[in-house]
What does this fold into?
Amino acid sequence: MWRYRNFIKGSEAELKWLNQLAKRGWLLKQVRGSRYDFVATTDHYRLFTEYVPVDVDTTVGTSQLFKVLAIVTLKKPVIQVVYSGTTAPELQSTPVDTTTDDQLRLKVAIGLRERWLNLANIWTLSWVVALTLIIMLLVALQAPPWTYSIGPWIWLLGTLWELLKAHQVHRQVRQLRLRARDNDGAWQPTMHVFLRHMPTTPDLKAVADLGVWSFVGEDHKGTYWYDLRTPASVDEIKQALRPLVPPEAQINVMSWLGLWPL
Amino acid sequence: MATELYQRLIDKYEPLTEAAFLTLVSVCEPISSAEIPAKIASLTNGQLQLGLGTLYTNLHMMTRDYLITERVDADETHTYEITGSGTAVLAAERDRLALLNQIMKNVRL
It folds into this structure.
């Protein structure tokens, strides 16, 4: 038996699904991309998924308790996902220490999202070329008008399907970012921070961890303008800055939309 | 020289993760990779176990840092054994756990 599933490799959802199938008598045999191959089994397996560095030899010998079922090497990030299983009765409920941290899951999820977006791009570019050729052919054949709409519909459906898949992964990426507290590379609103009536250049080292600061400009009246990429709210930014500036200084923060000072 | 190396490894590994601790304890005597999960089950009375990938990763990392030696026989059996530096790391962990244990003895729960 085989199944296609758009799982993040090594994710909890994937492991839960594999264990459900194992309970129904289908043991994982091989993983190739999104395709999972299974073999029928009468044994009761408990499965595990783990991330292992690529330089680790995962074939150093079969264990009395565990069996390596499948190994997938990912390109982004470069890591192996090891699928193992056990039939040992004592291990069916025993806590098993496995390396499945959210940081790695996040990287794997981002890699999968990029893959779907790249596929959507390739699909669109291929259809631009294909549609040009198809239209030239249809004109030459003097085909009826309705035939011209077939190609764009196929392109649209294919693109929507790929974007839907990318969106499904993106939702999991957002959840993993919250769990791993990792916003590296993520879109964050850019707040425009104005410090007015400053006697000297402000020292912002103490608030560096608020986000990514970039100096935009200053004027002769003591106004300093910074852009700050941050998940923090306007109030949080103001509260963090207040102890660092003199009492007469004014702090204005414009929202990332840049429409009004909040 | 050896003391400096031991200290560097202790600084790197201390405090040991549960997985690293169980891996290191299980290779105190020469043991083949296939037998390690059973050894861990025996050490923990079947209450804890390491995933195969986690075990491989720890064995690889510790072999690279020379906490463990690896011998590959003609029949492709991989046998692991703790080294002097591995013993030093384990002794440091023993002392750390003894201190924590002593603290816990005085805590009323």
Summary: Residues 84-105 of chain B form the longest helix (22 residues).
